[in-house]
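INTERNAL TRANSFER SHEET
From: sequence group
To: structure group
Subject: Glycosyltransferase RgtA/B/C/D-like domain-containing protein

Please process the attached sequence and return the structure record in the designated field. Keep the field labels unchanged so the import script can parse them.
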Amino acid sequence: MATTGIGAEAAPTMRIDPQALLWILVAFSVLTLNAPADLWGTIDHLRVPDTDDAMRLVGVRDLLAGQGWYDNVQYRFLPPDGVQSHWSRLVDAPIAGLILLLGPLLGRSLAEGLAAVLWPLLLLGLFCLMVHRGVRRSFGPRAAVLAVFVATQAFGIIVQFQAGRVDHHNLQIIAMFGLALCMIRGGLRPSLLGGALAAASLAIGLEAVPYIALAGLFLAGEWILRGRAALPGFLGFGLGLGLAVVPLFVGQTAPALWGTTYCDALSPPWLWLAGGGLASALVCACADRHLASARARLGLAAACGALLLGGFAALFPACLRGPFPGMTPLVREHWLYTVNEMASVPKFLAAGQWEILAFYPVLVLAAGTATWLAFDGPERRIFRIAALFLWPGAVLGFFQLRGIYVAVGFVPLVAGPVIDRILAAAPAMRGPRLWGAVAVGTGLISSTWTVLALLAGALTPTAANGRDPDGAIACHSDAAVAPLAALPAGTVLAPIFIGPSILLRTPHSVVAAPYHRAIPGLTAAIEGLGGSEADLRRQVAAHGIRYLVTCPARPGDDLQAEPAFATRLTRGEVAAPWLEPVSLPGVLRVWRVR
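Return from structure group:
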């Protein structure tokens, strides 16, 4: 047996680099983001998370099939005229490019599925890169890795970047996070880029309007308080937004529609605000040398703002009522207010839908933490900007789930640095202070709340959770809808949430799908499936419907005291000589109109 002498060298000890361990955790989180079965389901069956993702792929297919770049009409939706989409071709284009690139190698079907997997994962990689670089610049490498780890654990982020998520919310997160990073850096060039990102966000969709408005107010406020030192940031943002929004608008809008007002998409009302922001920034920049006091600068900025908002109200009064000015009370009550993303936090909790715990509390905690740190320390401006983008999500998200979609992307910007500070200070902490720091650190990791949501669901398995979500998924799945493709093409009246899947998986047309511009179709589905036999026959005749499709797990809302005729028809309680049952595999019930 060998012995170690006094002069012998000690054996080298193995040490694990904490930074490397954190990267391993990040890699593990990314690799387990999507289950293999989900990835293959998307590749082989175009299984996508949401109806919007299905409709996006329908639009991409139309573009690849030769439909014009400026022609955003979905002609199989409420035929024969179709429905004009308010979505941007700027999102369709890169997905279509991926399909064209992969098609010659894999065939069109697999190329579509693989593109639906790759696009959100590529965007996730870009977002994580932005998080890492943005946090590392101000807080160091460990905080940066921790921020990326938090991003891969945040349920609100994961659902927007999962396989098949080809809708535009992930791009909105990236655009607004980029804007925040540009505001943090400050100066003319970063602010120009930030304004251009804001314009790109407007072109993609209007969900980020509150954040863009607050960013402009923040930069204007800095100029009011600090004067010339803060002018480059204010001027750059105004220039970037005002100059970029016009070519983006022209590039995606048909010339015939340049003068048409839309409250739900980039059009003259929003060009007015962006152009007014540019004009206001230029006026303030020109007058800056003559304004020696903050009060004088405030007066000028307030006058510009009053002219801007007053002009908006006078020229576009319809948009003061929100993006759905033409929606009827029937459609609001029986469709819009039943959509999960329009539900409030109290409504989720009252219904026992505990998944809200995975979304909302971490956002509120991050907003509160950023606000606390915004008043002291060398990085207080960073936390002020983080709070600026977090609080709108916390406030809007309390009333509508969709309000958190953009804001949740800023949780890592707060969580990474805060957890890094806690880890550095933990050895010197004792008692309640230590436990408080641990609670904040773990609370900023969304998976902590996800565990609580799962636990709450396990402890209350019979909680009233509204309509059965599993039944809904089964009814618009590939297995349920694809058999309809065997029938001769015709117009289908089906529950609203099944419409996009029918368009994606069959040659049929649909009357209804969950989009607010198609009020006649939404009305037809609500009245036809929720009313009497006479109501159903009236809608069938009005829209030339050839097939009636129902989902046993999700019957229509009853519009009268007794169950709807379509519901009783689905249960087999009644029959109609003008409807011929069609036997198809799957959970859907199908009738052909005689």
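Handover comment: The radius of gyration is 27 Å. The CA atoms of residues 342 and 400 lie 5 Å apart.
Transfer complete.
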